[in-house]
Amino acid sequence: MNDELVIGGVSFTSRFILGSGKTSRYTPELIHSAVEDANTELISVAIDTLDDIDNGIKYIPENVRILPNTLGARNAQEAVRMAHLAQSRGLGNFIKIEIMDDTTYLLPNNPETVNATERLAAEGFIVLPYIYPDLKAGRQLESAGAAAIMPLASPSGSNKGLATRDFIQQLIEEINLPIIVDAGIARPSQACEAMEMGCAAVMANTALAHAGNLPMMARAFKHAIQAGREAYLSRIS
C-alpha cells in the first residue's frame, strides 16, 4: 500500500521525525539510530546552532532532509530572519517555526507564529509551525499557507505524553493539513496513540536520546508509529 507522508509536495515514507531536543545537539549514535533503526527521513536542526561545530549537523546523511527550526525566536520578525539565514546556508526552503517568548513553560506564541507563517509561505517556504493546539490558530495557519501543523502534546521535554489530546483531535478533524504531533512524547505507546488518532507523523527526541538502549528504542518508535498508522487506516477504510 502506498501510504506516503506528503509535506509541501515532498513525499516521505517514514512518519518519524527526529526533533532537535532541548540541547539542539546530536551525537553520531543518535543520528545513526534515528536513520537506520527508526528510518527517519527528516531531522530538525536549530538555526541558532549552525555555527556551533558540535551541533551534530555533520552527522546527518545527505539522503536525509534537514528541517531547520527557529528555536530561540521571540517574535515573527526574528523567526523570519532565522529562516532566511537557514536558506542562505543552503538548507532549502523547509522551515519549522518555533516562537516562544515564555521562558517558564516554553509554550509557543500562536499569534506571532501565524504572522511568521503567512510571511514565509508567501515567499515560497514550506512552513511547519509549532503551536499550542488551538482550532482557531489552526484555521488561521491553514489560510496563511502552512504545509503542516505541529501541535505540542505536552510541554517540551516534559515527557508527559498526550496531555492536549482532545485539542489535537479537533485539529485532525477540522484542518486539511498533516498534523504532526510534537513535544512531550516520551514512549512508543504514546506515539502509537497519536498515530491511531489520525496524526500524520510524530516528532520526538528526548525519548531516544535518554534511552538505555538507543537502537532498540528507535526500532520501538518505528514499529509503534507503523502500528498506530495501520490501526487508523483500518478504521477509516
Topology readout:
Elements: E1 5-7, E2 10-12, E3 16-18, H1 28-37, E4 42-46, E5 65-69, H2 76-88, E6 94-97, H3 110-122, E7 126-131, H4 135-144, E8 150-151, H5 165-174, E9 180-182, H6 188-197, E10 201-204, H7 206-209, H8 214-236
Parallel strand pairs: 3-10, 4-5, 6-7, 7-8, 9-10
Antiparallel strand pairs: 1-2
Helix pairs in contact: 1-8, 2-3, 3-4, 6-8
**Total helix count?**
8
What average pLDDT do the residues reach? 91
Overall form: globular
State the secondary-structure class: alpha/beta
Q: Specify the helix fraction band.
A: 25-40%
Radius of gyration using CA atoms only: 16 Å
Largest sheet: 3 strands, parallel
Widest beta sheet: strand line-up: 3-10-9
Low-confidence stretches: none
Number of strands: 10
End-to-end CA span: 13 Å
